[in-house]
Amino acid sequence: MPSVKRVRAANRLNALKVQKAKGPAVLDDGNGLRLLIKEDGHKRWACRITIGDRRITRGLGSYPEVSLEKAREKAEDARRGAREGRDVATDRKAEIKAEQTRNLLTFRQAFERYFNEVKRPTLKEGRFKGEWHRSLNQYVMPKIGDRPVSAVTAAEIIDLLQPIWHIKRETASRILQRITAVFKSAIVRGDRLLANPCEGVREELGKARPPVQHRRALPWAEVPEFVRDFETWPMVTAPSRLALLFIIHTSCRSLEVRGAQWSEIDLEAAEWIVPAERMKMNREHVVPLTSGAKAILERARELRRKDTELVFPSSIGTMLSDNTLSKLLRDAEIDGTPHGFRTSFKVWASENGIRDEVSEAVLAHGDPDRVRAAYRRTTFIDDRRAAMQKWSDFVGGGPTRVRGPLEQLIRVHRDGASH
Hints:
Elements: E1 5-7, H1 15-20, E2 25-30, E3 33-37, E4 43-51, E5 54-63, H2 68-83, H3 88-103, H4 107-119, H5 128-139, H6 141-144, H7 154-165, H8 169-188, H9 201-205, H10 223-230, H11 238-250, H12 254-258, E6 265-266, E7 271-274, E8 285-288, H13 291-302, H14 322-331, H15 340-351, H16 356-363, H17 370-379, H18 381-395, H19 404-418
Parallel strand pairs: 1-2
Antiparallel strand pairs: 2-3, 3-4, 4-5, 6-7, 7-8
Helix pairs in contact: 4-8, 7-8, 11-13, 15-16, 16-18
């Protein structure tokens, strides 16, 4: 092996010496900086540093790509990092890896691309926001939204679905179907080389147990957004749509609304008088009609049938089923029930300065004291009207005219009833 010439540390290098140096040789510039020269003339810079009790050599790049001046700057950075207990080279590798990760397509970006280019054109306008974005924004994006789509693992999919797999079966199953499609699209487009991480997840999570039935409620702060979205759904039959909106605006029970008769409605007095035989507590209940509730009734009157007195009849003129209204919420992936909107109102009332006795009177909750119950029904009528109007305005105020998809539904429904 040929001998290697060394230049002592006192002999600091200059640009001309570096350019003319021949190898094999190791030229010291001082403070641990060296120029390593191979026999074939290839030159590269290195710096000796001590981190803790370790003595290590770090490469600083090849000459002439890295000049003497630049090599000295890099060596000083390495020494400074060593004094702080850091390895600058390792830090830089981590920065490069992080930068590469940032430049990769994220799951959120892959989802938006798939949804906008592939799925959205197949959906009827008005349903996409509730059915796709809401559930993924709630359960998926906080966990893997900013992860590279190429790096997401099956363990991460299991982790995000496991908390809801046995208690929100339908929502969890749809989420799995949708993210499976997103990963499949990413694989086809070459953004993911690994297998689809959703494969085998359903089996791993196990057979979903039937959920315990509770009367779940949509958080009151989310009700206005639901009402806005719900108004645009063109595939919902008009009576069921109006019935659910009426439940929201009046905070009445589903059975009371579904059984409402036109003879009980006094639009001039803005009151709906529910007879005792149709009330849970077997007592007549006067419901003040807000502007939003009256607007809904005006729309319902547009499709009033001759063969029934029901305000919100089914397509054959009978009472709507509670399951029909519940299915509207399931289809929207809303974790709630029609009855749950009463809870939404109650919590909103308690957090917005409505006295408890007023909100209880709105909900017609039972009171064992008949005298006090009668007092609530009469004395609180103005307070109830004010509270209900405030709630009605908050959730959307109710439409003031027939428009859009509902107008078409009303025309179809009315024409069908006349035959």
